[in-house]
Amino acid sequence: MNIVLVSPRTPQTFWSFAHVLRIVGRKGAFPPLGLLTVAAMLPRSWDLRVVDLNLTPLTDADLAWADAVFISAMIVQEGSAREAIARALAAGKPVVAGGPLFTTGSERFPEVTSCVIGEAEEVMPELVSDLVAGTLKPRYQAPRRPDVTTTPLPRWDLIRTRDYLTMSVQASRGCPFDCEFCDITAVYGRTPRVKTPEQLIAELEAVMATGWTGGVFIVDDNFIGHRVKTKALLRAIIEWRERSGAAVNLTTEASINLVDDPELLDLMVRAGFKNVFIGIETPHEASLKECGKVQNTGRDLVAAVRTIHQAGMQVMGGFIVGFDGDGPRIFEQQRRFIRESGVTTAMVGMLTALPGTRLHTRLTHEGRLLGSSSGNNLDAVTNFATTMDPGTLRAGYLALVRDLYSPGEYYQRCMNFLRAYRPLPSRAATSWCDLKAFLRALWVIGVASPGRWEFWRFLARAWVGHPKAFAGAVELAVRGHHFRKVAAAL
To answer: Is 0.85 topped by the overall pTM?
Structure first.
């Protein structure tokens, strides 16, 4: 059969990195890892074509060629997903849809031929058989959360890796915590399921075999959810790097209790992790307790962030305003915390109730839910009746985000980070592509954009005071340019 696998377009968001892509000369931020994994579950005799709408349009020729269209989407991609579904159905093609958007909201897509609810591994044999027979069912429900040690290698041969900013692999699914606003446990459960060290190394090697020399994002929602197994993965990565000479820089997501295990922190740094995204959410203790963020309570969060920076990893932080316990002072509290901690990449969003979360259930029972969420944390809207005046919340949020990424504030925060940062020497060589991106950054940020004088001053201070981290400082400047453009568009 001929199958077109469609990854919908992602709107401009904090993580779209649209303005970074223009500087570094790439077309998309992240490859559609879910689709590539699903592709590996289809018969090898089938002809497959991946269409990432962030890179290229879905053409009439694609639809004419296809026997069926597979779509995997996140909530933030709903608009683009609906357009692709409508076009496929109008062309008379069956549509099989999966991913978080459909797992938690399939009832809103009655037009879709078949929705896959949950993880695909155990339903694919039946779905493939029905597709061949022309007897697709409207719904395929995963009977359980599958053993990820049986998940096949993604089909990297279906894309051009050089089109992307970074590559992605997955080491585990699930998170042991149960934050009220988070839908991860609804989708993946609270028991972390971890791939074997051999499996993860094989996936990293498969990515490298494509000729990839850039960074890799391990996309787990909590990489350290199962510490014992995570340490085994890290030791395997360290051994692989030493044996192969791989100089890949790694990024992942984890919880703040990483600082409670010095061995784990050391292993991550030695394995090549340069960035870790952590949901800090808020410095307001009452709001942390309100949302069940138990791993963040009762600790000095500024000190925790600095501990990670001093170990040699950069914390990219997630923050939320709009909890019931938040008052008008929360915006200054957030601003002060982010500045003092040196979290350069600070993703701040207004609290929203995602389907499947405990927050969504509670607000529904309280009669406070006002509608659905777009999944875009930069929408500056929320979908429930807040305790804070909505106008005050929106105005305070917008002022906070714009201030955080104003040139003076942002570059000073970068200097706060560099003063604490103690990176291990990098083995990654500077490429011609890196040099071209650097020269573009000098022009775009240092000549053609507002804040140019703050940019040059920051580079000079970084070069003089932190020469070993200068490449990282340039990367921070490029990231900050993207965030500033996004903030200005709010």
So the answer is: yes
Tally the C-alpha atoms within 13 A of residue 242's C-alpha that lie toward its C-beta. Answer: 8
**Residue 307 region by backbone torsions, left for phi larger than 0, else alpha for psi between -120 and 50, else beta:** alpha
Q: Per the CATH hierarchy, to which homologous superfamily does domain 2-23+30-141 belong? A: Cobalamin-binding domain (3.40.50.280)
What class does CATH assign to 166-404?
A: alpha beta
Question: C-alpha distances in angstroms, 339 versus 29, 155, 306, 334, 380?
Answer: 27, 42, 12, 9, 22
Predicted confidence (pLDDT) per residue in 285-335, tens digit: 999 999 999 999 999 999 999 999 999 999 999 999 999 999 999 999 999
Per-residue pLDDT tens for 151-190?
Answer: 999 999 999 999 999 999 999 999 999 999 999 988 899 9
Give 385-450 as a DSSP string.
Answer: --SS-HHHHHHHHHHHHHHHTSHHHHHHHHHHHHHH--PPPP-PPPPHHHHHHHHHHHHHHHTSST
Nearest to 173 by CA among 71, 231, 253, 293: 253
Region of 246 on the Ramachandran plot (φ > 0 left; ψ -120 to 50 alpha; else beta): beta
Reading the block at residue 9, the tokens are: 């377009």
